[in-house]
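Standup notes
- DV: blocked on the single-chain target, sequence here:
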Amino acid sequence: MGKIYGYVRVSTVDQNEDRQLIALRNFGVERIFLDKMSGKDFNRPQYLSMVRRLREGDLLVVASIDRLGRNYKDIQQQWQILTRDRKVDIVVLDMPLLDTRKHKDLMGTFIADLVLQVLSFVAHTEREFIRKRQAEGIAAALARGVRFGRKAKPLPENFDSVHELWAARKISGAEAARRCGMPLSTFFFKAKRYSRTE
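- DV (later): unblocked, structure below
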């Protein structure tokens, strides 16, 4: 009998993983790996660490297929690697048909593969919908005049006089940046915008 591993994923640090953790612990999972990252691919530190530990006969438990990932082809590929190459069993808690410990005959494998394809397609499609809704939300916010990112720092009080000296080539850009207390690239960026508003 192999070890029982669990994998938990939430997309952002703000999201709560408690529901998944409770489900996995109730199942009897011994070791849980958690990533707070997008499911767009499988390049996730804890997922990769877990895969390195998996051995033949081990069991991997996830709450749902979209916690494993949200890219259709990648989910299919990882499933093959884990179940056929590594000979690890997988249980998807919210989909009893995706339990590779059961029905290891041809019909059972066919049904599991079919269900996996449908669910991974749904997870992939949902990710596309999320991205589309985000883009629409950002576009709507920009149209309303919402500005994203940090608020720009005000120019230092001496910026006018320093800019004038620099523009007249009386001091170098490096000296102007030093007098304004900012990096050279920031001074050039501010100077360019300042020139446009004069």
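- Follow-up: The CA atoms of residues 108 and 120 lie 18 Å apart.
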